[in-house]
Amino acid sequence: MNLSLAILSLTTSAFPGPRVAIVLDDAESGTPARARLEQSLQERGFEIVDAETTQRIRSVVTPKDVLEARLPEGLGVMEADAIVAGGVAYGAPAQFEGVESSTVRLTARLVDLATGRATRTLVTEATALGGTGRAHGASDAVDKLLKDASFSEALTNLGQAAGSVTLIVQDLPDRDALLTLKRGLERALGGAPVKEVYFAKGLGKLLLGGSDKKTMVGPDVADIIGETRTLALEVEEVANTRIVARHKAAKAVRISALVLEPKVPPKMKSSASELGRYVATHFAKFEFAKASYQPGSLSRADALAKAKAVGADVIVESEIMDISGSKALAIRVIDTKTGEPVFRDQRPMAQDSLKTAEALLATVGTVLPERLRPAEPIAEPTSAAAARTP
Fold first, then answer.
1. Whole-prediction pTM
2. Same domain, yes or no, for 151 and 210?
3. What's the CA gap between 85 and 154, in Å, rounded?
4. Domain membership flag for residue 390
5. Cα 390 to Cα 384: distance, rounded to the nearest angstrom
6. Among 64-68, 192-196, 261-265, 285-289, which is the least confidently predicted range?
């Protein structure tokens, strides 16, 4: 079954709902308006952003900024799906026929950080009776806000543009990586629209869906991401309308490596096989690679011919060099298509050559996926081919 078909069903999920940050100025003891709003939203299935995160948001955007639509770019990339901001004003008490009362006025605005949509600035009022009635009045003002048609509609559509999912990506090396993900997701999601919303400082945001014909749910999309090898993404958090993932080039790269017997000084000939097999074994442990070892001395031309014959994508050369009495270990990774190195590095060799090899290979494991990332994407298997895969 085509995985992209999974996104066509909208189901109730155990995953948390959209995350809402409440940035509300409420000077009354116990902040009754905020407390009532939090409780009401939680009862409706929303997740309330914790106090620490809310404070970070408040440090860069004030309720007044939100009410006046002055939002800093990229505010919601990692913090929340939406902000409810505003303030509560408690009027001076007045006496009427022996009963003390005051007016509680709530001013608020809801901003959907995924789609950029916002309600108009809404104002609700309630009456607080008696000296201790402010909390009750604040709760009434919040209830009126929640019953407002435009506010209620905005809550219903929060995080969704005709059934969309917000994808937040961390650790992006550059914007090109985000655009590569955008194109890959369009293919993986069967042609559903994917819109770039934001990129800066290694963070990016994409809006998936938005077409009436392609209703999406976060858990379904996360499953597709996890099972699509060409998408360099590792999912870390899933909600119905939101996915947080980390860019991981190694997931999208799949190579076969032919590891050659190392070139070593004549006096170290006996250790060549041990070093070569160590490099091959370590290379095979990389998530993105499988490796085989080729014993014997081969020229690069012969090695490239051998690699092409066995279907290897790269050859791995290692060499112990004697430079002015000091030894160094070099590792080179050669692309079999071009015959050119895609990685090369060397280190002064410790007494234990395997420890030096381990340090070099750690660098290979980090750098090589990014070096190979611009290569042509690996084609996904057809459904018939997938059915034959054990």
1. 0.55
2. no
3. 14
4. no
5. 12
6. 64-68
